Amino acid sequence: MVDLHPVEPGVRLDHPWMRSSRWGMAWRVWLAVLIATMAGLLLILGPQGGIGGFGGLSGTAAFPLAVVPALAGVLVFALGSRLRRYSPITQGFLLGLAVAAVFVLVALVASAFDSWGALYLVYCPPTFVACAVGLPLAIWSTTRIGSRVCWPVAGVVLLVYAAVSFLNAGGAFDADPFAG
Fold first, then answer.
1. CA atoms within 13 A on the CB side of 127
2. Could you read off the pLDDT of 63-88 as tens digits, one per residue?
3. Can you tell me the mean pLDDT for 107-120?
4. What would the DSSP string read from start to end of 134-148?
5. Rounded CA gap, 55 and 172, in Å?
6. Is 129 exposed, middle or buried (0-12, 13-18, 19+ CB in 10 A)?
7. Domain boundaries, the chain
8. pTM of the model
9. Residue 178 and residue 180: Cα distance in Å, rounded?
10. Interatomic CA distance for residues 1 and 174, integer angstroms
């Protein structure tokens, strides 16, 4: 049977995450969700064209990169001490549900005034996944082994995203290489 009201923390008491301040949790989650969102955008748009190809990085990518990590960081700042009692995976799922719920609420409010408000619903599944991956990654990054893995991976994702964005701004992905 699943205990929905755990009294013991889901993370060991001697884990560095348990000693983190609310601000420490918030900035780590912000950075981890930002990296997860960047990696997700690179995977979704993809070099083979994906959904619009890398050309989609020019306009639509700015919104999830600005809003999703900031919203996740604010929610962890507000709710982080309450989330600690759950396991890292459950914490990530709960954060993903909370951030996706905010997008649903924004979509409902915006669609009452504009016809494009339902477009926010498109962001819900990727937002959930980015937060569900980002928060456990942030928890793992506080350990010695996790920091040896997480920071280099974050640097590689950031460099690849910056390079692809730079090439996209230069028009490298405008022409179809397979056109006859």
1. 27
2. 788 888 999 999 999 988 888 888 88
3. 73
4. HHHHHHHTTSHHHHH
5. 9
6. middle
7. 16-169
8. 0.82
9. 6
10. 55
